[in-house]
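FAQ

Q: What does a record look like?
A: Structure on top, sequence underneath. For example:
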């Protein structure tokens, strides 16, 4: 998820046909009443949405709900109804949009663009329409996922094998320049095993130059790089990579051979020493189980090695499982780690870290175990958190809980959804829908903030990184 998702697009009311098609019998999407939050929630109530997940342990798990209708051939009508039901029954964010009006506008726009809604088969065009419709909620945590995006989400939760061989990197196009700069080269994965590391800039792969075409925008250049890198790695055969590396003020060009292979869809955290007594702990995602366990193990190892300064790198981490996030926060702030999630039906859920366990309770003290950590660690030295505009959701929660207990924030303003919680579920056509289902407070009852903003800010400059300068990390080391 990038900040670009917040650039809200208008609903696709632009006519594919010059006049709206009139409704046909049975084509009207049923009205779904909007639920209201009760004034006095009870401790003994059992929320249906949470039960559907398997209880508190499943929050931010695979599905809020199964597909609401099991059709042989789902249509746009089914998706429109799914979204109405999901949003009206569970949305509890801070959008000021008239949701009922939004639903009606979407139905009118869909009929104008696609005609008979029950006969409108799902396609790239209907996906674009649904994306704009859900973006109309104006909540960065509420969004539509097409089939590929929803499949990638599910794969990340289970750390499923990638569909094709991969290099084992995260990269970005260098703004205004040729090449792809590496944001991550994950340990024990192909690129890192071949000697590549963060900050290296790939200049060619398999003899194909990664040069910018005349007139290309950064977006067009990135799309071309994605195609070339994907094609070069998909076969799983050894491929020669030429790269530029900047060190100690000098830039050199070299080549290496990388053998792509099928990998996990969710890389786990890793650590490396970046200065005497200072360990950088890179946490790329919270989206799979085992993240908290790995963080505690890495922190314990750093403490035993005598580290006194921990830099937690959450840049580009778009969030994931709330239980894992609270488990990670427990290694940083102890019993201050936790939050209460206010929900539309009043079934507020509290998560709290206690002695290596994440506990949960619904309108009650948290007593139900949802996650346990073997050999829990507790960091007590200097702590710096690196964030950027790609740090979202669970990353923002961990960062602000750590900042409350004295951690230093370094980098740039985060994405801006750290005060809400979302659940991603299936809708018709094997697409996904993320819905903001709760507003988050810390364990003192104070609302969490949407974003975290270091002061002063240090831009996460990709061009600087491509030429040997990781500006936020340099600032953290000073």
């Amino acid at each position: 998820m990038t900040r670009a998702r917040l650039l809200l697009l208008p609903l696709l009311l632009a006519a594919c046909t010059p006049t709206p098609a009139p409704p046909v019998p049975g084509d009207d999407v049923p009205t779904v009443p909007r639920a209201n939050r009760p004034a006095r929630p009870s401790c003994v109530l059992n929320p249906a949405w949470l039960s559907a997940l398997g209880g508190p342990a499943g929050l931010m798990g695979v599905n809020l709900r199964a597909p609401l209708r099991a059709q042989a051939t789902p249509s746009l009508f089914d998706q429109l109804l799914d979204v109405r039901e999901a949003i009206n029954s569970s949305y509890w964010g801070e959008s000021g949009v008239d949701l009922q009006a939004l639903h009606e506008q979407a139905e009118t726009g869909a009929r104008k663009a696609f005609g008979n809604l029950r006969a409108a088969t799902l396609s790239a065009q209907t996906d674009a329409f649904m994306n704009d419709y859900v973006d109309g909620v104006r909540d960065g945590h509420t969004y539509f996922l097409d089939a590929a995006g929803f499949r990638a989400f599910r794969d990340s939760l289970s750390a499923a094998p990638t569909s094709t061989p991969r290099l084992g990197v995260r990269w970005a196009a260098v703004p205004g320049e040729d090449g792809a700069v590496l944001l991550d080269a994950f340990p024990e994965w192909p690129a890192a095993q071949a000697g590549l590391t963060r900050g290296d800039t790939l200049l060619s792969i398999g003899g194909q130059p990664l040069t910018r075409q005349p007139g290309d925008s950064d977006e067009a250049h990135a799309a071309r790089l994605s195609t070339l890198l994907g094609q070069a790695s998909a076969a799983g055969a050894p491929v020669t990579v030429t790269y530029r590396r900047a060190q100690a003020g000098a830039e050199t060009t070299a080549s290496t051979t990388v053998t792509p292979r099928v990998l996990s869809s969710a890389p786990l955290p890793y650590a490396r020493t970046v200065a005497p007594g200072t360990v950088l702990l890179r946490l790329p995602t919270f989206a799979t189980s085992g993240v908290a366990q790995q963080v505690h193990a890495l922190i314990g190892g750093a403490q035993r090695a005598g580290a006194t300064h921990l830099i937690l790198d959450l840049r580009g981490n778009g969030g994931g499982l709330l239980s894992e996030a609270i488990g990670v926060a427990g290694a940083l702030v102890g019993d201050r780690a936790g939050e209460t999630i206010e929900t539309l039906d009043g079934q507020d859920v509290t998560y709290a870290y206690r002695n290596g366990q994440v506990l949960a309770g619904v309108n009650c003290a948290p007593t139900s175990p949802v996650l346990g950590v073997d050999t829990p660690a507790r960091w007590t030295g200097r702590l710096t958190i690196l964030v950027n505009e790609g740090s979202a959701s669970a990353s923002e929660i961990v960062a602000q809980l750590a900042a409350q207990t004295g951690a230093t924030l370094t980098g740039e303003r985060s994405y801006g959804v750290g005060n809400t919680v979302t659940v991603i579920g299936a809708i018709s056509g094997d697409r996904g829908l993320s819905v903001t289902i709760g507003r988050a407070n810390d364990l003192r009852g104070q609302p969490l903030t949407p974003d975290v903003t270091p002061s002063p800010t240090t831009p996460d400059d990709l061009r600087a990184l491509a030429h040997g300068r990781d500006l936020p990390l340099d600032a953290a080391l000073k």
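Q: Is there anything notable about this one?
A: Confidence is low (pLDDT under 50) at residues 1-21, 60-69.
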